[in-house]
Design goal:
With 228 residues, the protein is of the alpha+beta class. It has six helices and four strands. Helix content is 66%, strand content 7%.
Length: 228
């Protein structure tokens, strides 16, 4: 688990964000590869051992591949992106900040952007012949760096990852319930029931983390608002 260095040095913040981007991309690659391998061995490998005289439901094999890959992806993401890690990404994004391009003709008193300085909210800077406005409370991101913008967009809100996972898992559960009610073959019923059991458990864990963290962040935000 990486650690967060709570500092105000622009260079150190950018280096930390770069390290976290590499670590996050590695975790996403691990999720993608592991989920695809799991679905491949469950849905496609058994088909190879079926005799030529036997019938193979190819449509169900493809559907099972999608169900297993998405379900495994959500479970692995919950394991590799725990709440503590998401909070770490949120703190790094809050220190990084974000810049939005604005029309230079509508601006006055534009500041020259320096790589070793930071910009407060609503501050205007000039970078690569374009004018940008600071969007965060503390902004040390490079205005022309798209990866900094993506990092801030995804992790600025601490509950965004959990919300995406809950929506995806909920959609999977509803689809599997519908398929379970429409299925007439015993092997489809057993497969869907087993996958649903694992998805119920993952959905419960995600929803529990969302409720607890939502109350924690709302209490922290209200406390900061009262202090300010």
């Amino acid at each position: 688990m990486p650690t967060h260095a709570c500092c105000l040095s622009p260079d150190l913040i950018r280096k930390e964000v770069e390290f976290l981007k590499i670590d996050f991309n590695w975790r996403m690659k691990e999720v993608l590869v592991s989920s695809m391998l799991s679905a491949y061995y469950i849905a496609f490998v058994p088909v190879w051992f079926v005799k030529s005289t036997q019938y193979v439901d190819k449509r169900w094999s493809c559907e099972l591949f999608i169900l297993v890959s998405v379900s495994t992806s959500v479970i692995l993401m919950r394991h590799l992106l725990p709440p503590r890690y998401c909070d770490l990404l949120h703190k790094a994004a809050a220190h990084l900040g974000c810049w939005q391009k604005v029309d230079p003709s509508l601006c006055s008193n534009v500041l020259q952007h320096m790589c070793n300085t930071c910009g407060r909210r609503e501050v205007l800077v000039k970078h690569n012949k374009n004018v940008f406005k600071a969007m965060g409370h503390y902004n040390v991101a490079v205005p022309s760096d798209v990866s900094h913008y993506r990092f801030y967009f995804f992790f600025n809100k601490p509950l965004r990852i959990l919300n995406i996972l809950i929506i995806l898992e909920g959609a999977m559960i509803f689809y599997q319930l519908y398929s379970l009610m429409c299925s007439e073959k015993w092997y489809q019923t057993i497969s869907l029931a087993l996958i649903l059991f694992s998805n119920y458990y993952a959905f419960f864990k995600l929803l529990r983390d969302r409720i607890v963290l939502g109350k924690a962040y709302s209490y922290s935000a209200s406390s900061d608002h009262k202090v300010s």
